[in-house]
What we know:
The chain is mainly α. It has helices spanning 2-20, 26-49, 56-78, 82-102. Helix 1 (2-20) packs across helix 4 (82-102), helix 2 packs antiparallel against helix 3 (56-78) and helix 3 crosses helix 4.
Amino acid sequence: MRFFLACIITVAVETAFFWLAGCRRRLDLEIVALANVVTNLTLNLLLALVPALYPFPWILLLEAVVVAAEYLIYRHSFGGSLKLFLLTLAANVITYGIGLIIKL
Length: 104
């Protein structure tokens, strides 16, 4: 259940973030939401397979892979740019920070 709650929060926050950043077309927001469902559930499954202490370098590596995967999806869908990469990175930093705060 924790995985799904984390996923719902991530999708809501990152989709809202992209909407606030000017990404307003419904299809674009659906792509953002779907990309986050896939990457969030995959990340949390991988983290469940790591020992309970979750060494920080491992989490950092997996988060970097998530940012890269989401950016590649967005680049394919929206066209690549530094701004898009930075938005992707910022959205993930925000949701990671929220996760630390609420400790899902």
